[in-house]
Structures are given as C-alpha cells and as structure tokens.
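It is worth pausing here to work through a concrete case rather than discussing structure prediction in the abstract. The textbook approach is simple: state the sequence, then state the predicted structure, then interpret. We follow exactly that order.
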Amino acid sequence: MPKKVPHPNRFLPKIARVSAGKITTQVGTCGFPVPTNAVPIPTMAKYLFGSYVLDVDERRLLRDNEEIRLRGKLFDTLRVLVENAGKLVRKDAFMESVWPDSVVEDNNLDYCISQLRKLLHPVKYIETVPRHGYRFVARVERTDAPTQISAGSTPSRGRQEIRYCMTSDNVRLAYASIGAGLPLVKASNWLTHLDHEWESPIWRHWWGELGRHHRVIRYDERGNGMSQREVPHVSFETWVQDLETVVDVVGLRRFALLGISRGGPIAIAYTVRHPERVSHLVLYGAFAAGLNSIGTAEDINARRALIDLTRLGWGLHNPAFCRVFTCRFIPNATPEHEQWFDDLQRISTSPENAARLMETDDEIDVRGLLPLVRVPTLVVHCDREKAVPAECGRQIAAAIPGARYVSLPSANHLILEEEPAWRIFLEELNNFLEWRAVPGAS
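Step two, the predicted structure:
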C-alpha cells in the first residue's frame, strides 16, 4: 500500500486551516478570530527567556545549553505560552492549539501546566488567571537567526559564571563573575538572587552595562538567593566577612567596590579595613546607620510593624503585601517590574530570614568609620526616594574626606533603565571610574 501522506494543513499553525480550497476562520491562540484573507506562514523561531532557549524548529528546550526533555503536549503547551508571552491565553485557545483534533478534559491542560511549573521551578514563569486561563509572565526575546545563542545570555552581556566558596564558619556562598577589565565587586544587599536577577528588568541593565567595562563580581549573602539559606548566625560582622571571603577566593588584589543600599555600610567597613585593595568606592542609595540608632520612636514602631508583616505575608503572592514593598523601593514600577519584584521576594529567602535580615539592618552603625575612608569615593542618591532618604547619602558624603555627591532625579530606590537618571548615573561612573567607552553605547 502507498504510504499515507499527511495533509499539508497539519504543518500550519492551528490558528487557521485550509479546507476544500478555501480559508476558514479559527480562533487564535489568544482567543481572537484570525482574519480570513490570508493563511499564516509558519515561521520557525527560537525564544529566549531566563536561562532557557525554546527551539520551535527542533522542538527542544535548553537550559544553559543542556536539553530538558519535553514530550508531546508539554512542549506544545509551553510553545503556546511563550509565543504569547505577557498575554492571557484562554483555555479554549489551548485546546484549539494543543489538542486540535481531540476532545479532552480541562485536567489535561492543568496537568501540563503543573508539570511545566515543576520543570521551570523556582522561578514563576506561568501565572494563573482564575476561571480564564494562563499567562507567561517572563520577558521573552525571539530570534529567527540561525546563529547559536547561549542560554541565559544576550549578545551584549555575555554569560555569567556562578561558583561557590565556604566562609571560615562553614557557610556556603554563591558568587558570580561577568565581563573583563578592572574588577568591580558589589557588596551584598538585601534581597538578591544571582540567577533570577540576571534577567530581571530591575537589575539586568546594571550588570549588562557594568560588565562592558569591568569584571563584575556579585554574590548572594548568607541566608539569601543561591547561598546557604539556613545559617546559625547573621550579623553586620558576618556580612563584612562574607565580602572578605569572596574577594580572597576570587584572588583580587585591587578593585573598585560598589555598595548599594545596605551594601553601602558593608563596603565602608571593608574599605577602612583594607584600603590598599580598594581603588574606588561607589556608594549608591546607601546609609551609615540603621533606625535603632537614628530613628524616632514612631519610625521604629512602624519598622517593627513592617517586620511583623513580613513574617506573616512574605512569599504568599498577596498583591496588597507586595505593593507595600514595591511602593517603598520602586514607586514608579510598571506591571512587569512589580511581577519581577514579587517573584524576587518569594524566591530570594524565607519569611523568617527576611525578617531577621531587616532586624540586623536596623542595628548597623558605621558613622564612626566615615572619616577613616581614604580612597576616592562617589556617593550617589536619588533625590525623592523613600526607602533610604537622600539625607542619608548627604550625611555620608559630608563625613568622608573628599567624597563627591551626585543627586539623581528619581523617586525610585533602584533606578530603571528607562529613566533619565540612569543615563546620568552612567555618565558619573564613566568620569569616576575612567571608562574609555561611551556609556550606553552598543
């Protein structure tokens, strides 16, 4: 018997079919009808998100260039989600695209979504919209070019390398390296995750730009991110020791040091102890003393209430709780930024650790060390931010001999790539760190 040849319509996207020489309208993958005046031409593409590459042509999912096996409907379900990233995909649209020739129960789709979430854990890529469908919430880049692109990277940023080391008290720390040139080390700050923040719209422009000019070293402090979560002791002294451990393991003799927010006092303490190793000190959104030293009774009571709320609501995906933190750190956040910040909360640490780290923050006081800083220092602060008021930055700049103070026009604690303040910040770094390339140039 002659071999049965599949009808060519099988190879068209399921949003349209050709039948008896004419085009029939079908529901598109997002629940909207497709115009009947054209047949969609299938375009084979690769989709990049997080540390993954979804190769539609080869029907493969890669993570850091290692294949993750996705059979049959699991791959098709992920493809529909990724192709419609950011959009609500209704259940009937899934049925049309993934099971076009079958009548199946909703639990088939539920099973596929559940399995995909397990495979993509710990990052939350798939959001459930109750009674309607699902949405893929990660930033997705598409490439139709045949060239090889490493998973987890973009051509402009390269690829970060993550390693581990042990502290003197046997705590496991994760650290990452990217770029080349004069080393720049970022002291730890609250709420980090080396892998998750690599693709975050809150952080990716920081590491992409700094990595063009420096060998950037970052690490997750104890109790956070990819470092050891359960630790017996956390204090300001252990944070400084963690920085010392990473610098020594990497083998850096001299480097620029960046302290963001709580990383500021850690960087200050390290610089005073090791002035011969720090070539430049950059303090962004930093403070020298916690609320227990400088806060009013009202400030301290409000902080205690926030810490109690953290123990109760951390990581529960409660929109009201998430907004409390988002509004403090990034009041001008877009929905995409809010989603990433929410995810970062849930995967960076546990509720108890988050509260314990906040309590330790409040005990910091390095004001006595400020006059002892003897390296070139740049102090940068956003002029309208609420998480760490600009007065904290001005006090640091006034107390460090020869420090230069720069005010940025922003209400955010962490400036976003779209803000004019970001370009100003890059220009200041260019002058201070003596970059040879023009900041922001591709």
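Step three, interpretation. Residues 1-43, 145-156, 438-442 have pLDDT under 50 and may be disordered. The chain has two domains: 8-143, 161-433.
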